[in-house]
Design a protein that fits this description.
With 372 residues, the protein is mostly helical. Helix content is 69%, strand content 0%. The chain is built from 16 helices and no strands. It is elongated.
Amino acid sequence: MLKHLIIVLIIVILVAIKLNFNDTSPTQTVVIKNSPNIIKIPIKQIKKESNKTYSNINTKIDKKCSRNMDNNLSIEIDKMLKKAHTLFRNSQDAQAIELYQKIIKKTQNSHDIKLLEQFTEACMQMAFLYQIYPNSDKEMAIEAYSKVIDKFKDSKNSKLLEYYITATVQQAYLFDKDERADIYDALIEKFENTNDIKLQKRVEELLINKSFELMGKEDEEAMDILDKIINKYENRGDKENLPESVDLAILNNLELSIITANDDEKYVELANKYLSKSPETKPIIEMLEIIKNSQYLEQDEAFNQWLRENKKYHFEDWSFEEMKRWVNNMDDPETKKRVKKYLDAFENYKYNQRNSKNGLDTNHKIDITDLY
C-alpha cells in the first residue's frame, strides 16, 4: 500500500513552501529607492480635482513605501528562518522554537504573500518540532497548525488555500482515525466544486487519504473512493501525464482487489495500460501478481526473476501492513504459509535495500530458498 509517512510529507511541504518563497524573493539586498518628491500646491489653489490628484500621488507613495518595507522585512525574516533551521539541525530545539515564535509574531498580520509564506514555514516547522522527541507536545503542535488554518481558511488566494489544506491534513494526523475521516470529509466538501486545478488536485489527495483511513475497516468503500479518481481520468487521451493520485488509486485498488477477493481484471488492465512501462510502478505490479498467484502455487521462479530484474529498486513508500493483516486472517494453513513466505521475502527485500541505501548492514535474507 502506497502511504506517505507524515514526516516525509512535512519535510516535502516545508521544502515546497521554501521553494515557492525563493522563486519570488530577491536574491540580494534591496536598496530602497528615494521616494518621489511630493508636488506642493498652495492650499488656496487646491480644487476638488487637485485634491484627488494629490491624494492619488500620496496613495502611490504609500504603496511603494509599503512594498519596500515588506521587502526589507522579508529579507530579515529569511535570515531568521535560516538561523532557526540551523538551531533545529543542531538540536537546539528550545532556541529554534523561540525564534520561530518571533517570526510568526512579525509576519502573522501581513497581507504580503512572501511574508505569509514565511509565516507558514515557521508555523509548520514549529509544529514539526513539537511532534518529535524530546518535545512531544501534541497540544502545542495542534496550536501551531491552527495558526495557519485560522489565518487562511477564508482566503480567496489559491496558494494560501493550499497551505490551509496542508496544515489541516497535517494537524489531522494528531487526532484519531474517526476524527481524521470527519476532517477529510469537511475539506472535500469545501473544495470539491472548485474550478482551481491545483485545489482539484488537493481534493484528489484528500480522497486518497480518506481511502487509506478506511482500509482494513471498510475496504469496499475505500475501493469506491479510489474508483472515483480513476473514472475521472480513465478516458483521457494523455496517458503519459496522469496525476500521481491516479497511479496511487490504480495500484491500491489492485492490491485491495486481491485482499477482498474481488475481480481485479479492471485494475490489471489499467495498470498494464498506464503504469507497466514506468520503472517506479512496474515492479509493484509484478510483485502484486506474485502475491496473488502465491495463493494457489509456489512462486519461487517468478520471485527470483523479479529479484534479478529489480536489483536497484526501492519500495520507498510502499507499506505491506494491509497484506500482512490479510494473511494473518487466512483460514487455510497451507495457503497462509505459502503467501506469507513471499510477503516476508518482499518485505525483507525492502528493508535490505533501505539499509543498503543508508550504508547499514543488510541482515535481511532475500533468497527465497533460504527463508523456509
